Amino acid sequence: MKKLVIMTLAAALSQTVAANAQTQTAPAPRTTVQPAAPSATAPATAMREGKNLTLSESEAKAWINKVVYSSDNKNLGEVAAFARDSSGKVTEMHADIGGFLGIGETRVRIKPDQFSLVGDKVVLNMTADQAKSLPRLPK
Questions:
Q1: Is the model's pTM score more than 0.70?
Q2: How crowded is residue 116: how many other Cβ atoms within 10 Å of its Cβ?
Q3: CB 134 within 8 A of CB 125
Q4: Distance between CA atoms of 135 and 102, rounded to whole angstroms?
Q5: How many Cβ atoms are within 10 Å of 84's Cβ, its own excluded?
């Protein structure tokens, strides 16, 4: 009798496992992730001319390490710092250009009328060759 009960339980269990293995589960519904609203520290996405550019402290910090391109679309380096007056108006931008992996970079001074903030990059109003003559700064 014990053998019959054990065999019946084993058969029932194997049928349950087989039935579960054949059951297909429906894929989870896809969800769409909405882009987050821009934060106060995110760089502006529209083009902003450097000439009368005003940045808050958090905006200036958000631009540090952003890519600097020449007018002929060459990657020159990255933003190192912004100098601003008491009202937040940008008086100059410092960028590290040239080099490879941080070695051999040259820090240069760029006047506000020589660049624009476009999307999340800085675009100079000069070619890569012209950028080589920018005033150098000590690091």
A1: no
A2: 18
A3: no
A4: 19
A5: 19
